[in-house]
Amino acid sequence: MELEELRALLARHVRSDETTAIDGLYIARVERSGPPSADMSGTVLAVLAQGTKRLVVGDQVHEYRPGGFLVASVDLPVTGHFVDARPDDPALGFALVLEPASIADLLLGADPADLPRARPGAVPGIAVGDLTAELLDASVRLLRLLDHPRDQATLAPLVKREILWRLMTGEQGAAVRQLGLADSGLHHIARAVRWIRDHYDEAFRVEDLARLSGMSPSAFYRNFQTVTAQSPIQFQKQIRLQQARLLLAAHPHDVTAIAHRVGYDSPSQFSREYRRQFGTTPSRDAHTLHRPVPTP
């Protein structure tokens, strides 16, 4: 069974830093379920061969299991964790970075009749699905190349191209195709997403972001919520809180200064929203994050 072979290949080739010899391919093994943690999704295809992962994006909860996948076509703030992972039953999966240029190249050479009909408007930036037999087969063949270094430079790009094609023509293909279209609704929203990420400490008006995205304010707001599962203000709040947590790990005694640095005028509001996001106060979390890891 190919899922079992995929599982064995992942277990054999996983490294502590999750990298592989194939560019853009990462393998993860998680032996313990921790509390949900905040991160950025990246633009990836993530496939699970063993275990269950639960991911929260805005007001949406996504869960996928062995033989399932998640595709992220926009780099979004997410909160997630693996469910019931244990040393004797770890979660195993791989992530493949989605490159817009590779998708655009496939779209350019494809016959439009071979692609599913696109629905108007933006699509969600994150979606889950089940591997088709063809997509699973291509995934296994990509992982097999890790056992054949001589073949990787020639064959890995071809298999990755096949994986992209299977995604683009599959159930979640609309989001993947939009990633390669310079004038797609998702591409315009991604422009606003990048602006908020780069200027998370600044106030903004929705009208200005709508203008940056080439949309009316009402269309922009509607499409932003479709792609990110949250409003622009909620999105900015998540980015601010994630950045604050990174800063607190390095500067645990500067809670008030960090609150101002990430854009909060009110330290009490920062503390309330931080606790709502991470389940503890900034000062307590800073102490935990900064605590030295005991050596064996």
Number of helices: 12
Name the beta content range: 15-25%
**Mean model confidence by pLDDT:** 91
| Widest β-sheet, arrangement of strands | 1-8-3-6-9
What class do helices, strands and sheet pairing give? alpha+beta
Quickly name the level 1 CATH class of the largest domain. Mainly Beta
Q: What name does CATH use for the topology of the largest domain?
A: Jelly Rolls
Q: How many runs of DSSP E, i.e. beta strands?
A: 9
Low-confidence region ranges = none
Oligomer: single chain
Order of helices and strands: HEEEEEEEEHEHHHHHHHHHH
Our measurement of the CA-to-CA distance between the termini, rounded to an integer number of angstroms, reads 40 Å
Q: What's the CATH H-level superfamily name of the largest domain?
A: Regulatory protein AraC
Sheet with the most strands?
A: 5 strands, antiparallel
Write down the domain tally.
2
Domain HTH araC/xylS-type: 190-288
Pfam families: AraC_N (PF06719), HTH_18 (PF12833)
Organism: Actinocorallia aurantiaca
Protein name: AraC family transcriptional regulator
Description of the molecule:
The strands form 2 sheets. This protein has a 5-stranded antiparallel β-sheet with strand order 1-8-3-6-9. The protein has a 4-stranded antiparallel β-sheet with strand order 2-7-4-5. Strand 4 and strand 5 form a beta hairpin. The chain folds into 2 domains: 178 residues, Sandwich (Jelly Rolls), CATH 2.60.120; 57 residues, Homeodomain-like (Arc Repressor Mutant, subunit A, Orthogonal Bundle). The longest helix is centred in the middle third of the chain and has 20 residues. With 296 residues, the protein is an alpha+beta fold. This is AraC family transcriptional regulator.
